[in-house]
Amino acid sequence: MAKISMVSLGCPKNQVDAEMMLHLLKEAGFELSSEEAKADAIIINTCGFIEEAKKEAIENILEAARYKTEGNCKAIIVTGCLAERYKDDVTEEIPEVDVCVGIGKNKDIAEIVKNALNGKFGNAFGQKYELNLNTPRILGGVPYSTYLKISDGCDNCCTYCAIPKIRGRMRSRTIEECVNEARKLAESGVKELTVIAQDTTAYGTDIYGEPKLCELLKELCKIEGLHWIRTLYTYPERISGELLDLIKKEKKLVKYLDIPIQHSNSEILRKMNRKGDNKSLRELINRIRTKIPEITIRTTLITGFPGETEEQFCELHEFVSEMEFDRLGCFPYSAEEDTVAANMPDQIDEQTKVDRMEHIMETQMTVSANKNKKKCGETVEVLIEGYDDYIKCYFGRSEADAPEIDGKVFFIAKRPLKIGDFVKVKIFDTIEYDLMGEQI
Description:
Elements: E1 3-8, H1 12-27, E2 31-32, E3 41-46, H2 51-65, H3 67-70, E4 75-80, H4 81-86, H5 88-93, E5 99-100, H6 109-117, E6 145-149, E7 151-152, H7 163-167, E8 171-172, H8 175-187, E9 192-196, H9 205-208, H10 213-220, E10 228-231, H11 241-249, E11 256-258, H12 266-271, H13 278-291, E12 296-303, H14 310-323, E13 327-332, H15 350-374, E14 379-388, E15 393-398, E16 409-412, E17 422-431, E18 434-439
Parallel strand pairs: 1-2, 1-3, 3-4, 4-5, 6-9, 9-10, 11-12, 12-13, 16-18
Antiparallel strand pairs: 7-8, 14-15, 14-17, 15-16, 17-18
Helix pairs in contact: 8-10, 14-15
């Protein structure tokens, strides 16, 4: 039977799409392989969100293409956001690609691969809403932690973002569908579930007429076997008192909120088509910390948005300094084709964007270092992820650390431990963004 290898790039939402395609391929009788050199077909599940992601996708495509001469590869198939965004341009401009598949045709991936291996090349595109969010998955990561994708697409239409054009309007799964998948994941050994969507706080508005994230989280908390439930991509204007009360009350909901605010200046936020302003954002952060003092707050920011003045940037920098976010990612603005912002006047030069981003991150590094020092002496619960042979200790994450994006807790153990279990660790030192401790 033909061997298929897949490389999935980009965000966790794209990873879930990849895992659904892997299930369809296995069901069709293909053998899945992690070795590209031995694969008969290689699928590159791409991200196409910003320029850096596009470059990474092209690099991976070209790397895979060499196995046409050095390995067994007979077909290179490109799926994901880059394929959906640029369609036939992909095969025209990258001749190494044999087939380009839009997200609406993910459901037909097995037939597409079969045809490609028989020399029948042809791009395949469908309607965005044809992406089946309820397809079973083959988890590509660790068995104890995974993602639950509760919707696809986005209605927010931020002026810098191409996602609505790539993924279409928001399409939510029903609460029952989400809970059924989560229950199966828990039965398979998943202990940490991370709830994702382009905007989790908007979940359900398209099918129920109002947001239903709280109702969904309540049901997820009832599932036996789940220990941590984390929610990412919560928009500031939709963080309700009900959601905060739920996070405070439910033990399974980790005390962690990911709030992508992007900026703090009112004029820049207006240009971004974002809600809120400096005052309302400060009030939100203070309200969250008053309600849940132990909470970890993560945010993301953009520097160098068109027209951003030095004064507006200084306001953002002051905001970061004073709010002291627990986790923060900052990115220089990327002018994306077919977005409103790309055609705005007063585009900022690349060096200024990067300089401003670096200035924000330098400040955040100091904030993070101070916050980590205060954790020395505390005891935290850690999900064990592995053992570091070089420094001879285990490592994992606390509930303050989201998978793949936040720091680690390195710790000395009293006895051999099992990966995927939870242990109590007393913190005694810091290593940049990471913590060092000892098992209690």
